[in-house]
Design a protein that fits this description.
Layout (H helix, E strand, L loop, with lengths): L3 E12 L8 E8 L9 E8 L4 E4 L4 E2 L5 E6 L4 E11 L1
Antiparallel strand pairs: 1-4, 1-5, 1-7, 2-3, 2-6
């Protein structure tokens, strides 16, 4: 949103049984567009194994104004939820 910054309060990550033997690397990052895979700033990078759950709550991470928050992984069996709210820039 124009003139606003997003504040991340919770990150919920889970993997299913189809994850490869080496696990999955998940990266949450700031980008210049919705479909951009080039990382402007890394917010979180974590490796997870099969059927793992990682809930990170109680955060107060402010995203740079005008940036998108994107999530990418090297495996297709990852679920991610990101929660937060907007504040004026």
């Amino acid at each position: 949103k124009v003139g606003m910054r997003f504040v991340i309060t919770d990150i919920l990550l889970s993997t299913d049984r189809n994850i490869g033997n080496n696990g999955a690397i998940i990266t949450i990052y700031e980008a210049t567009g919705a479909a951009v895979t080039t990382i402007s700033k890394t917010i979180l990078s974590v490796e997870m194994l099969k059927q793992a759950v990682r809930d990170i709550t109680g955060l107060n991470l402010i995203v740079t104004e005008g940036r998108w928050v994107n999530i990418k992984t090297d495996d297709n069996s990852v679920n991610a939820s990101l929660m937060g709210f907007y504040v004026k820039a």
